[in-house]
Structure formats: C-alpha cells, structure tokens
Design a protein that fits this description.
Elements: E1 8-10, E2 31-33, H1 43-46, E3 55-57, H2 73-80, E4 85-87, E5 108-110
C-alpha cells in the first residue's frame, strides 16, 4: 500500500505524533508539511522515511530534539542530507542544532520561537 510516487504531502493540523510508518513507501516524496501536529521527535518523521525529502515543515509541534539517539553520523546524513528547506519554528526547547550539520544542501532554516540551548 502507500503512494510511492507522490511528491508532495500535506498532513498539517492532524494531531499526529509520528508519521514514519505512513511515509515508509513514499520514496519520491520531496515536500512534506507536518505543521501543527503533536510530533515530539524530529526523527519520528524520517525513520525509515523518504530519502528524497527536500522541504520539510514541522513548525508548531512539540519537538525537543533534532537528534535520533543512535549517534550514527552516516545514518543522520542520509536522513537530512537532501533537505533544502526546514522549518522547526514554534516547538519546544531544542537542545542542539548539531544534527543539522549533516544537512549540506540546506538553504533555508527557521528555528524561531524555540528555546535553543546550543
């Protein structure tokens, strides 16, 4: 099942906690809008999620960390490596921006209205 060739998905304002399983087969997904949900971990979106993702909006969620917990830089680079635009504004206290250093193609980053500690 799923939509393997779908390039854009808008799941905003749905009280979602995680979308990783729902997006597992969306290998061509490039634009994903998840603003206004209840997601608390950034990598609940990517694991094992779409590899072609370029634009991600997770603003107005409950994200407190951008880390995936396994500390594997190669895995992290695969998950955020193609991102060009990322909006994580209006979330919780984000402890570190270090995980985003693997996002070599990032040209737009909005981290406003967070309590960034790093």
């Amino acid at each position: 099942a799923g939509f393997p060739h779908l390039p854009r998905v808008d799941l905003s304002q749905n009280k979602l906690v995680s979308v990783a399983d729902a997006l597992r087969n969306c290998r061509h997904l490039r634009h994903l809008d998840l603003r206004g949900n209840q997601i608390d971990r950034f990598f609940h979106i990517h694991q094992p999620g779409p590899r072609a993702l370029e634009h991600l909006d997770v603003s107005y969620n409950r994200i407190a960390t951008l880390e995936d917990g396994d500390g594997d830089d190669k895995v992290l680079a695969k998950r955020v490596g193609r991102l060009r635009s990322l909006n994580v504004s209006h979330n919780a206290a984000i402890a570190s921006l270090q995980p985003l250093s693997a996002a070599a193609n990032l040209v737009y980053l909005d981290i406003s209205h967070n309590a960034v500690e790093d």
